[in-house]
Design a protein that fits this description.
This protein has helices at 5-10, 16-30, 33-41, 56-63, 66-73, 77-86, 98-105, 108-117, 121-127, 136-143, 146-153, 162-168, 178-184. The chain starts with a helix and ends in a 22-residue tail after the last helix. Helix 2 packs antiparallel against helix 3 and helix 10 (136-143) packs antiparallel against helix 11. The chain contains 13 helices and no strands.
């Protein structure tokens, strides 16, 4: 449907900065790390967040673009700190972080790349909940993404003990753990929780 001339008149032209930002998000979505690097050289902020709370890390993680995620991790100084801040940032619609976005599509390589960037995995991976109260582990388990679950569990430090158990056994707003969610969704792959030994085998029945 063609827009009316009146609507066209009301549309303000995009600034150069806005056009470059849109180009950067398009690069993140399609995995064009080389072009994104070039845009960064022109002053595009790699740690930016749009009006909906979505960052370049969100876009890349959702699309499985691990190369772009790794590029974000190559930044330094203040830019790196801003990129790191986006890893725990929640987009407006679902309240997802980049880890939730990657987990939802089973992008284990992106989860691993994101985990290499964050300096606070406890917050960005395990403590930040979506609108349903779910962690990225809930999201991956509900969808039956075994490799993503394994990638998330691998971010827990060895010998973390009760702290690790608390993270894995976290309950969402429906009082369900990630394992409960997998069972309810009929995911036959629920035994993937045993990839960390006894850590996940004693989840109480709901």
């Amino acid at each position: 449907m063609e827009a009316s001339s009146e609507e066209d008149e009301d549309d303000e032209p995009l600034s150069q900065e806005e056009r470059l930002a849109l180009s950067a998000f398009a690069c993140a979505e399609r995995g064009d790390a080389a072009e994104l690097r070039r845009l960064a050289g022109r002053g595009v902020e790699l740690g930016m967040v749009d009006e909906g709370g979505c960052s370049l890390a969100h876009e890349a993680a959702a699309g499985g673009q691990a190369g772009v995620v790794r590029l974000l991790g190559e930044t330094t100084g203040d830019v790196l700190q801003r990129v790191r801040a986006t890893l725990g940032a929640q987009e407006a619609e679902l309240g997802w972080t980049p880890f939730h976005a990657a987990a939802s599509q089973g992008h284990a390589e992106c989860i691993e790349a994101l985990a290499q960037i964050t300096d606070d995995p406890a917050t960005s991976i395990w403590l930040t909940r979506d609108r349903e109260g779910g962690t990225p582990l809930h999201v991956a388990a509900m969808a039956g993404h075994v490799t993503a679950v394994r990638a998330l569990l691998a971010t827990l430090p060895e010998g973390a003990g009760e702290g690790a158990w608390s993270a894995v056994a976290a309950r969402d707003h429906s009082d369900l753990t990630a394992l409960h969610s997998a069972i309810i969704e009929g995911r036959a792959e629920v035994n993937f929780f045993q990839t960390r030994g006894s850590l996940c085998t004693n989840t109480p029945a709901h």
